[in-house]
């Protein structure tokens, strides 16, 4: 629906665009123009339609009456010759339907517009009625059958048309009386006001009315509100009097905040879907009885000073369709939830402080527009952005466009401003004043109001252009790719007698260019002055950033240099306000992004509030601005309606159907054109996006061509169907595997750059293999990064079991939902960062450090080390100097928690994209035991020297840890220490003789065997389940471990095992969201239930939409099918004995106790085992214990077993062992495919701090490459060191084990929650945690300690099919296909400690 008829001269141009003409002439145009009628007259008359061009015969052949007659004739043929006619009809229908989607033959069908819909409806009605009459009346006269068919057909048409008369179910009606879209206008009375109010957003940041400009009145606040189940429950014909009558008296109304979503105010319920629609799909119809409709009322008054001005009413965002009345008179109707709509209410309002005006708004939750607003987020409703009134002068600036580009040398700026004027009076002269200011140092930070005093600021350029009514001071610029000749405004003046267009072009020498790294801004003020008057009628202000965007040599270039997109997708989401996002929330989001080195945002999948673009301009973020279009059926195009309901559930439609629907054409175009018209002046927007996951078709191609003509200075992207070249200038796929990305980097056929519009699905514990993507990006110039999906978990607070936690789809009574698929952000709903954010910051960091050499030397009395590194500046446009970045170097070892030497580093300026060598000197580390060199690390940190708009001084921009151990060890003459090499216990050698009085004994105690030493006792259960069930010891201090001739000085014995759960082999983990991604692997009943719930097509697409070689069945489903969570572990062999060991290297011998037992592990009631496990305990007289574990996968298991989650040991320790120390990667959570940002070192924390509050609980808290770990309580500790299978590697005969010199490592996880508890939890409340993590919530719960030899990665490519990459999988088979064999070991040492430094002293032995 157009707001009014198109002006003469534009109709043919628009018609060309809508019917996919190959050649277009004239300037770009918008499919929406303003009406000249009054609001009441416009809304009271029946809406007209502007159809597509039609051939000469189409009005006759495809008119409704012709269709009716033709369909009845066909019905008669069916009655007379049923079999042949039905066959012919079926063939014809199939052909016509396919022609509708076959682009080369679409002309006839698509050009018929509404008539095609009538024809199709007539065919279906007549065919259905005729078939029914054929069955029930075979022997009735033919004329009776025809009469009955005609009656039924006409009744059906009438009923259908009755439904279609409702505006919210008519795709061609998407606005009534709505003014044309334009750049945001504020109608300031003075230049100082225009400048001051542009430093921060005037609507949200200044709630006091007195602080607002005199020409603005904000209607935010408390409104009266009433919710009805549907529009028909309120009024049958949308009439103000009926609206007020049905609504009841004022005391029946509630109060609601505006802006807000009414679901967040306690009305109706939230719905979350990703692919599905929350109603049965039958475009354009929406539920008649279940379409919540909110009615809003508010009284307001306007000052008398507004007399003689135009009063404009603006709604910033309303979902999804709404009518507006003022003082009982209809104003207009609008759709497009995320774009503003403006109405002229001058004739309807009363002025004066004593005059009360009433505004009424009726909002429908669902409309025909909902079919193209099927984005992956909550379905919310209501007035969720600002509502404002503006007093605009009659003669006013109606729009303006600013293009600030660079010349061909990228040195001087070319500023072109084009201003559109309206309401010029005959015989009067006017002038437009342009003034350009330097805007350096000013901010729109909502917490930092600016006091701008114009006398202190002088324009660097100014210009005055005189104009009279009907005069155009500059000719229309022709469509061209030259930057200086690009048209800026969508609309030409509709009424040349009362309008004019003014242009100004100026060259700004040696301009400071705008980039995401250096967001230099200028400020342009535009004033409209009448005649020689001193005061202006209107002032507007706009920020200006000089930059040029182009695609050259298969690369996206900004200011002549190829950029790298380190981006993220962002939904507007406030956990307590929904889409009503505040200025402060958006500012905090963008600052947090910048602090984690994110340089680009995609506004997925709709235009954001205007202030977000202002913030991106200022803070420095590239923006892909995306139109509010998505109809995510996620199915192939071309399915017939019958196949739709067989293959897909009723909440989905065939992908691409609406992209080819002529009835949606104008609305589709309007969403794209209005976005560009509003946001055209922002330098941060470097790419336009046509929408998301909406298929490809004529509507998409028409929108692309419009954008390319309207704004040739920006590329256009669109992902769907492989980013076809006819709709996308950028190859922007979703979630391609790394190998696919690399293939594109190598090919030369497609010369477009590749920027992933979505990649690395951050759902729960995710974002594995991030390194793989960035290594590929760095190898190919045409691979320029991408946008992570996505920024924030869209959780909403809700109380379960008296604990408030984050809720998701299905938690609010939304029976059609996609569960927690909206919980896929880098940050939690309250913006707490998730561990994966560290990995993102690391690979997005703008500086890289590489070790070139490290040499030990002597200077004076102290030993020194000289390290040479290479510093690489990854910035595209910004040099790095010491004035902006302070480089700090710190040396550390594994013998202390703190740095032993730290110093500032002098370095030369590093140009963008260049590198420099830097030398760093530091002290040599203290020697370890026996003079050995400890592990030495150099930590480099790049720190902000000064406070910026996005971070305070001291913020760490980049960090790296370099290992110096190998470089320095060769230069140190160390005393050999075979114990450290062999990982032997400290008691080996002569010290063992001193402990001869502590003889080990083995006691048979019936069901268990006890091994006793002088100060410890271990008990092993030799019954059916078996294992170490108790370990009581008097722990040694680190001095006593150093001198084994000393006995423990304490008498208090400590129990290290909780409830008999000693080390036992474990193969499972609590599935992550990525583990659950994919189809389920069940029996016939399970598959049938999936088909009924999701449609066969959605089950099949898991196989068809996954890359070749990927498995379609989820890991978790395959683990459950293999019954890995139901393993039974009976003992089949048990042996305990005393023996003497000799050490051929250290000399001497010792007596040890050895306890060995075996388990055959299989699912409950299974006959054939999956695993054969051997445990071998070696207990030394000192109390040290070595555990060797061998896991053999059986041939049967190797043939059927999926990749294993883990292979390792699980044990439980008493609750008091809450302190944790380890040497490995940290301090944050990390896994084998997400560990680059977790540096090797020694760390200390607590067990409770290992908990990561993922919205849906799962595996968490992992630590990679752990050489040793210690859990301790007051005075007592259990030190665990990774070891080989045998206590003495030189005695091993198994050549498959790693060599003795290879330091073994393990994956560690310490948690208060068992795998079973996490698996059974749908929300954090199920494990006793809420939104605010309580680290003391489970201090009485035992510690679950996992010590894994191998642990599968978490994946991150996607979350809907298995995606862990090969190096990070734990296969049950060896590389040659034989059953896998896993061998590993542990040293366990109980010890007493006075401080955590004691752990380091013992661990270093």
UniProtKB/TrEMBL annotation:
GO biological process, alphabetically ordered: lactose catabolic process
Keywords: Glycosidase, Hydrolase, Membrane, Transmembrane, Transmembrane helix
Compositional bias segments (type: Basic and acidic residues): 10-19
Annotated Beta galactosidase small chain/ domain residues: 1010-1389
Pfam families according to UniProt: Bgal_small_N, Glyco_hydro_2_C, Glyco_hydro_2_N, LacZ_4
EC number: 3.2.1.23
Transmembrane regions listed in the UniProt entry: 55-75, 81-102, 122-140
Region annotation Disordered: where it falls in the sequence: 1-47, 465-484
Bias (Polar residues): 22-38
Catalytic activity reported: Hydrolysis of terminal non-reducing beta-D-galactose residues in beta-D-galactosides
Family annotation (InterPro entries): B-gal_small/dom_5 (IPR004199), Bact_Beta-galactosidase (IPR050347), Beta-gal/glucu_dom_sf (IPR036156), Gal_mutarotase_sf_dom (IPR011013), Galactose-bd-like_sf (IPR008979), GH (IPR017853), GH-type_carb-bd (IPR014718), Glyco_hydro_2 (IPR006101)
PANTHER family: BETA-GALACTOSIDASE
Protein family according to the UniProt entry: Belongs to the glycosyl hydrolase 2 family.
UniProt name for this protein: beta-galactosidase
Organism: Vitrella brassicaformis (strain CCMP3155)
